[in-house]
Amino acid sequence: MTTVTKREPIHCMLDCYAWIIERAGFDSRPLYSGAWEASYDVSERGIAYFGEEIDPKRWQERMRRLYGAAVVHWCDYGAKRSANFAKLLGLLDDRSDGAFVLTVDLYHFPHAPRFGSRHLPHIVVFEAPAGGEWRIIDPYFSWSGGVSRETLREGFLSGVWLDSAAMHEAAPETAAELFREDIRPGINPLLGDVERFVREAVERSGGHAPPTLFESLQQTGVIAKRFGGYARVFRYLAGRDEEACAALAADVAALIQGWESFLLTIARIGLLKRAADLPALSEKLARLHEREASIREELLGALASWSSAAGQAVGHGGSSG
């Protein structure tokens, strides 16, 4: 029986990669470096966790740098979906040491919260052992179970193969390179994008929140879950310091909860049809920035200590041999 350990969701694609990495016996935590600033879509309709212009190649390249050339592309992105599904079926007998990572439409999958009600892209692991049951493993929702050919055909969008035999443990030196790229002071772009969208929407509506404002921003709650990457990376850096790891994890949980609280405030303003207090909303976002900035400082300190212990001299701006 394939099992999925229940833990906080972060990013559906990274969670799938991490599940396969861990099953192969390797440490997945370095993969989450930079998850807190993973791409999202901003348009006049709102802010969404997924968009047509978002390209997974950045994360696939990071996967290669950390764990080897494990991502195998087999989809023809210029072909029809039905042709790629037929190609998937043709590959099942030739794949044993690894798993498919598929992009699917959650509308068709009964385990999904929006099953049958909304078309949303999502990423899952798919396995089809010889002579065995077809299975979906969804680390993001901590779920695994059987899937019929018809359900998979209806929900399939695209996919890659992750070859476990091509994987190796992430070298600390490579992980350090990514950490130095990603762990830095600064304002998360999500803060500025949300504040700008709210201000412009309210100003266009004469000082009130338009009825669609909450719906336009609702997916920022999904994007905020990516801040969980801070806790994964910190635990990698802090090692056996359980007290520090627990404290940082609590700060990250409070940051994510703060974003959920902000969204509830937006929803309440819309329901009550009150004038939107833009300075108060900006203050809420400023407090979220302060909390995230504190978390980043903790990671910078942990990175410096970890690098020093590994025989490296690392400053906030880079490294020296």
TrEMBL record:
Pfam families: DUF6005. InterPro entries: DUF6005. This is Butirosin biosynthesis protein H N-terminal domain-containing protein. The lineage of its organism: Bacteria, Bacillati, Bacillota, Bacilli, Bacillales.
